[in-house]
Amino acid sequence: MPRKPFSYQITQLDPAKDHEQISFLLSCHVLPWDLERALEFALFRTFAIPSISGLLAQTGEFQHRPRKRYDDTELILFEILEHGMNSLRGKRAIRRMNSMHGRFEISNDDFLYVLSTFIFEPIRWLEKYAYRPMTELEKQGVFKNYLELGRRMNLKDVPQTLEEFERFNLDYEAKHFQYAASNRLIADKTIDLLLGFYLPKWLFGVGRPFVFALLDEPLRVALGIRKVASWRKVLMKAGLRVHAIFHQISSEPTEPVLGTRRKRPTYPEGYQIEELGTFPFKSSQD
Length: 286
Known about the structure:
By secondary structure, the chain is mainly α.
């Protein structure tokens, strides 16, 4: 068996009709580690928009229950990715997501921007740090998949081509990236959470500058983070390059890497989709 059978399988698919399968194969077989890191850094970009970070700070979830907030976001997205939007679990996850979002006043453009980061940050991360970039077919598959998710989120005026959506993404950042105290608050809580996956708490001070090293200049300024020494950037890029080399010579996992199967301290006994999120679920009979 070839070392990269799932990458080959994607080449035989049509992004217009097979976008869910393309997204699943990329995230669960081909590049699971890189795409999860990319989506984590996509979150940082949303924190640089004061209207988004301000709402996140207002809910108190990131300050008081950052791990639950992180797990809930991941699990809802993994439920949709792993089971499909038309599956019962996928529909329940989308319904839960829409129900949570509907409790807050969130502009359509902020929704569109967040959606755009989920498309373009993975593309950019793979270009910079992975053993290979996304192919054009893969980019179109990921784009079509999020386009369909945006439709089910009832978003308006969604750009209909990859080029138009990237232009919206870049223009929105140029216009709305601006420092606010809530930006830094939410970013700090998230960085500490992510460092906790790898380091004991007493080493967070050592680890934070290396996370900062992966932030581009406009993002760093908008989050109120100090400049990082060049050697830290070089070291981080070298470490990611070593990871990419090992990934390139390794076989793709035959069993899918599923986020919904991962053990999470937030839900030691498992979870129900309707208990994910920032407020209690009430059935129509309550």
